[in-house]
Amino acid sequence: MSPVLLQLLILFGGLSMLAFGGGTAVLPDMQRAAVDHYHWLTAREFLDMFAISRAAPGPGSLIVVLVGLKAAGLAGALVAFVAMFTPPCIAIYVLARYWHRAAESAWRALVERALAPVSVGLTFASGLSLMRGTEHGWLPWGVTIISAALFAATEISPILLLLGGAAALLLVGS
Amino acid sequence: METPKPVAPPGLASLFVSYVSIGMMSFGGGLTAWTRREVVQKRGWLDDRQFLSGYALSQLVPGATNVNLAVFIGTQLRGTAGAIACVAGLTALPLAIILLLGTLYLHSQGTATAPWLGPALIGMGAVAIGLNLGTGVRLARRNLSGAIPIGVTAIVTVSIGVFGLPLLYVMLAVMPLSLLLTWLTRPR
């Protein structure tokens, strides 16, 4: 296995087990590793890939496929995919088989309650670090704030917001 | 094993097909809502309580919540083969699509073939960040009450989002802290 494939395997395999509350939790670390440490891609490209993975169907964590594709071609994409999804799948599979036993236990409720504020923090943190990592003009900043407010306060479809954001930048210019 | 008054366990093929449709309908997030609509409302394979406890467990385990949920639902309904059928259905087409989009994106770089692509991606990227922050606001409204959870959220947000500390160290410090504080303030 080539060094880059091995790096992808270790990076995403490790990050997958830290992705508490979902794949977005590890975006800041993923960005730091892929952009600053391994120099597989630029911060701009990372944000582009984030946008593509949000606009495309399926789980948002598929951004790892794009990072792998840029780092090491098709093999990199597939290694990244397997590394990101296999460890959590095995973990939940094992738990699902014992779920009915854990369902009433007090520790489970405790862990759930302790994890909730951490997950919320990780969600905010990933948004903030993506903003920090990229050069943002006034218009993208405005688009970010408006779409955050709309998404938080209304039932508007995310895909409409994504299209609206693209339209705003195309019409007003960047 | 607490199965619902089962409507005859679904076949592997119908699990796969259901999950193909879940994966393809869920543009820009909202996977959980689509999963619930398909598995609970349309098919009646699980009731709401089973679905929600599976959803909680899926969030508890690291990894993409909805992929975890697919493993959980597949395992509950049809064991190992069910889990594989659900995950394969959920990810196969989106994987192919994102590979295609990624290849197009990487080939378009540095060429003048699509001058609109750059600004469009900047706009979508800005919205995608907004969606994250908006999701945070929604989750905060639903899950945070009291000074301790809000404080824990603030510590995680600032240490990673503002100061850029590595996730592993933050988790190692904050998870025991959050567990301890939750335990100390547990309802008795």
Which helices and strands, and how do they pair?
The complex is a heterodimer of chains A (about 170) and B (about 190).
Chain A: H1 3-16, H2 27-37, H3 43-55, H4 63-102, H5 106-132, H6 138-153, H7 158-172
Chain B: H1 12-25, H2 31-42, H3 48-60, H4 65-108, H5 117-143, H6 147-162, H7 167-184
Mean pLDDT score of chain B = 86
Percent strand of chain B equals: under 5%
Distance between the termini of chain B: 30 Å
Number of helices of chain A: 7
Uncertain regions spanning at least 5 consecutive residues of chain B: none
Major sheet of chain A, described briefly? none
Shape annotation of chain A: globular
Q: What would you say this structure looks like, in words?
A:
The complex is a heterodimer of chains A (174) and B (188). With 174 residues, chain A is an all-alpha fold. Chain A has one domain (3-135). Helix content of chain A is 78%, strand content 0%. Chain A is built from seven helices and no strands. Chain A has helices spanning 3-16, 27-37, 43-55, 63-102, 106-132, 138-153, 158-172. In chain A, helix 1 (3-16) runs parallel beside helix 4 and helix 6 (138-153) packs antiparallel against helix 7. Chain B is mostly helical and 188 residues long. Chain B has a domain at 1-109. Chain B is 77% helix and 0% strand. The longest helix of chain B has 44 residues, at 65-108.
Write a concise keyword list for the protein shown above.
heterodimer, A: 174 residues, mainly alpha, 7 helices, B: 188 residues
Q: How is this structure best summarized?
A:
Chain A is 78% helix and 0% strand. With 174 residues, chain A is an all-alpha fold.
